[in-house]
Design a protein that fits this description.
By secondary structure, the chain is mainly α. The protein has a domain of 53 residues. Helices cover 66% and strands 4% of the residues. The protein contains two helices and two strands. The protein has a two-stranded antiparallel ribbon. A hairpin with a 2-residue loop joins β1 and β2. α1 packs antiparallel against α2. 2% of the residues are buried.
């Protein structure tokens, strides 16, 4: 009789795998924010009929709000990726590439 193969415990993810997983999660989250600002808010901006800093909200979103959010997304992405890169370098083991 042939013994049944035993399931080996999965190996711990390497620093590079953890870095890539965190990068994908961050990118997906920021793309969701980008999509919301670009399409969802602009699509419903006319329905949100109120004054915002003296201008109609739809005008403010189209003229200023989207650009400000996009700049903030870029700055946030750059800071988080720098932190991810520092963390990856600090936890890189001898077997990691």
């Amino acid at each position: 009789m042939i013994p049944a193969p035993t399931a080996a415990a999965p190996a711990a993810p390497t620093a590079a795998q953890r870095h890539w997983r965190a990068t994908r999660r961050l990118t997906a989250g920021l793309l969701a924010v980008w999509f919301s600002v670009t399409f969802v808010v602009c699509w419903f901006a006319r329905d949100l009929d109120f004054a915002f800093f003296g201008w109609p909200f739809s005008f403010w979103v189209a003229a200023q709000g989207g650009g400000i959010v996009f700049i903030a997304l870029i700055a946030f992405y750059a800071r988080r990726m720098n932190a991810f890169d520092r963390d990856c370098r600090a936890h890189r083991g001898p077997g990691d590439a």
